[in-house]
Backbone:
């Protein structure tokens, strides 16, 4: 057998692993394209509807959701008594990242815990610095303010949080259901949670996917 | 001291416990009036948004919510991966009742577990027999059918469950967001969950309370 024939045969049998490598890279590319990553915070007093609607809708949108508990990964009692188990402690979040979006659900107690958490602050600052998305709803925009996030941007919040957000002139407050300004997404409350979550899906995965997810949930979007 | 004076003094000092008894009964009456009771089922594969929106909205409506896990009270993995802890095992529900409403959230896995549970069946039959409310959403009306509940009534369900519900001619299927027929409340899916839950609040506590709860959640109802 001539040398050229030997090389040809080895190529056909993929002895150099070229096809295998290509397949592997295509799969990784495909997985990478599929697996946008979200971190959703959860603390005692978090509004369970705002939390669950975000986590569930993002998962339906093909986004890999990780739930980070404050102060740790033990069972969390939400604002109306539902007990939910986080996936990880907030201290583990940095090593699991980077995340394409950090989601802060509302609820007074939960938002206060997020506002007071140095770990949440560090994650938010790194997220903003790198231009990735931050999304906060209801009382949670107050946690953005506490950590000096989204300064000068258009934002919204639960109506009763408006004065607190407006004080100091750091934000341009709008009364829309969902406000998107660059990489900052804010929203008003439980009744705007579906729009809030679908806006995140649209921003990360596209309008078509967001519409498909909305249709499956029997929601006009 | 004359006997009449002694009796008068004892009465004033409430030595016979008459006032105490009256106060106690007034408090019990007031608590009784306040504390309508709901049992919400939760099983592996339950749709977490439908579950949480029901539990949270009813709690906001002043209804005492108990979460009954199937098969027991251990942590439940819902349809999109959120882990929720029930308050009690379904086997404990009978002794905690009676409940003013039994709520069955959807999600294929959860609805199947509810359809196959003899304990759920027994609770539903007793509930229907005594004229108390049964509420099911999304895939959960199939569990009503499995247990022979609401026969001949107007109902609805998640659209893809329609054929299964219609087969056998046991129900009059309607395409409304929420269908109320006597003590049976059914609804379609995640996007109709707020209307479903607020309808339960209205039925148990009144229109005014339902409107107040809706307003707090920034929902038109």
Residues:
């Amino acid at each position: 057998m001539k040398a050229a024939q030997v090389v040809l045969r080895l190529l056909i049998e993929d002895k150099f692993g070229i096809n295998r490598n290509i397949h592997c890279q295509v799969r990784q590319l495909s997985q990478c394209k599929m697996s946008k990553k979200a971190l959703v915070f959860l603390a005692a007093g978090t509004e369970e509807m705002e939390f669950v609607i975000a986590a569930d809708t993002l998962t339906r949108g093909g986004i890999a959701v990780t739930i980070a508990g404050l102060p740790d990964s033990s069972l969390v009692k939400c604002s109306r008594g539902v007990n939910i188990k986080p996936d990880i402690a907030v201290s583990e979040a940095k090593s699991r990242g980077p995340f394409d979006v950090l989601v802060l659900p509302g609820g007074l107690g939960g938002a206060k815990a997020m506002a007071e958490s140095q770990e949440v602050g560090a994650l938010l600052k790194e997220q903003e610095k790198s231009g990735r998305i931050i999304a906060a709803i209801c009382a949670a925009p107050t946690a953005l303010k506490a950590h000096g996030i989204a300064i000068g941007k258009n934002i919204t919040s639960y109506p009763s949080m408006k004065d607190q957000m407006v004080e100091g002139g750091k934000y341009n407050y709008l009364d829309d259901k969902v406000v998107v300004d660059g990489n900052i997404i804010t929203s008003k409350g439980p009744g705007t949670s579906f729009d809030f979550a679908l806006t995140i899906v649209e921003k990360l995965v596209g309008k078509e996917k967001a519409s498909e997810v909305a249709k499956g949930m029997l929601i006009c979007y």
User: Anything to note?
Assistant: Confidence is low (pLDDT under 50) at residues 20-32 of chain B. The CA atoms of residues 51 and 105 of chain B lie 5 Å apart.
